[in-house]
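Lecture notes, part 5. Sequence design as translation. It can be helpful to think of inverse folding as translation between two languages: the language of shapes and the language of residues. The source text, in structure tokens, appears below.
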């Protein structure tokens, strides 16, 4: 009876956040049903680090800490964030996720993991993972400045994997049979072909790589990609544009924000100006320039200037999901990329500036001489109808 009492008291103390910690994350699971490991990754003022829950560890000058693992009553791991700044993501792995002998993708959910997130001693959110298949799972991201927690819970087949989905830039449909080549690092990787759903993946080591994608009838493209120090899975949606002579502008991004909107302003062939976005889909020269609007992450969101007129154009991206927050850095952290095509080739690629607050990314202009002029700045706007 006394043993049960002391075990229960120990668990209560474990679940109570330590003094001096701004945030505390606790992972518990049924140790008889699985072996889990939590990973807390941090992005803090241009620095990146992570800790694993299996042992005690301190990084970022003491700002991020793992208290290690205990197994009294039930297995648990605890993590501390001694800061009210930075962005953090929490993952769960099966401890043997990268072992070739481990092919049971149900191990994480069978272990019945629960995750508790505290801020200054107050419980913010609880997560229970009861379904899903994979050997690693992203649970949430945390903006420490605002306390906002974005629940994700997405499973992946393993760690250290770059997953790509190739889609048609015009309608978002999968592109099977695309050729993918990856170069860089110490390993040599065989070319892959996207499957019927447009998917392909490369198991890679930590480092920087270059991905090239091509298919007859489409304009080939390439991307720099990187497997991070924390060895967590990386996702890319690559939008291939069918061959076209006119300007085509393709926006893609990551899982968050869910809803980003492309805005294009320019001259009408018959005179006057237009401002196109999802709420203002007007016909110009009999054509709808907005090919595709996306509201659930990744993109693509595509605008094609089917009937160019002489004059100046401006292209911007608005973070509709965080339109009311002037301090949000979600747009800056979205991994957004804008690709510009014309004359059946890729003219230029723009990547969203990092670590900046705001909901509006002014990307570029096209002048009357058909020159592409980068802007590449992030600002905040209260009402997207006033974008200029």
């Amino acid at each position: 009876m006394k043993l049960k009492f002391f075990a229960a008291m120990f668990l209560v103390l474990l679940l109570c956040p330590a003094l001096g910690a701004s945030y505390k994350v606790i992972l518990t699971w049924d140790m008889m049903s699985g072996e889990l490991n939590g990973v807390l990754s941090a992005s803090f003022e241009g620095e990146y680090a992570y800790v694993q829950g299996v042992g005690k560890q301190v990084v970022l000058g003491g700002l991020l800490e793992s208290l290690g693992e205990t197994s009294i009553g039930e297995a648990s791991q605890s993590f501390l964030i001694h800061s009210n700044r930075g962005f953090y993501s929490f993952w769960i792995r099966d401890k043997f996720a990268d072992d070739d002998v481990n092919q049971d993708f149900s191990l994480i959910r069978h272990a019945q993991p629960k995750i508790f997130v505290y801020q200054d001693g107050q419980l913010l959110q609880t997560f229970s993972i009861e379904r899903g298949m994979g050997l690693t799972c992203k649970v949430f991201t945390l903006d420490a400045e605002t306390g906002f927690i974005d629940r994700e819970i997405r499973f992946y087949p393993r760690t250290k994997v770059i997953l790509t989905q190739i889609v048609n830039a015009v309608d978002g449909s999968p592109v099977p049979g695309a050729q993918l080549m990856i170069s860089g690092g110490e390993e040599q990787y065989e070319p892959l072909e996207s499957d019927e759903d447009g998917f392909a993946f490369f198991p890679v080591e930590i480092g920087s790589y270059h991905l090239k994608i091509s298919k007859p009838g489409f304009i080939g493209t390439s991307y720099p990609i990187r497997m991070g120090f924390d060895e967590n899975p990386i996702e890319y949606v690559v939008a291939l544009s069918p061959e076209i002579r006119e300007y085509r502008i393709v926006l893609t991004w990551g899982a968050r924000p869910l809803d980003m909107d492309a805005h294009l302003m320019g001259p009408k062939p018959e005179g006057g100006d237009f401002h196109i976005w999802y709420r203002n889909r007007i016909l110009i020269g009999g054509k709808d320039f907005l090919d595709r609007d996306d509201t659930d992450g990744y993109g693509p969101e595509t605008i094609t200037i089917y009937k160019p007129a002489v004059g100046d154009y401006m292209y911007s991206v608005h973070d509709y999901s965080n339109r009311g927050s002037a301090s949000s850095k979600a747009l800056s952290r979205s991994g957004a990329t804008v690709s510009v095509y014309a004359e059946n080739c890729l003219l230029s690629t723009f990547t969203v500036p990092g670590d900046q607050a705001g909901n509006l990314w002014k990307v570029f202009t096209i002048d009357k001489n058909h020159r592409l002029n980068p802007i590449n700045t992030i600002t905040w706007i209260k009402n997207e109808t006033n974008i200029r």
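The translated text above is only one of many valid answers, since several sequences can fold into similar shapes. The chain has three domains: 2-156, 160-243, 244-388.
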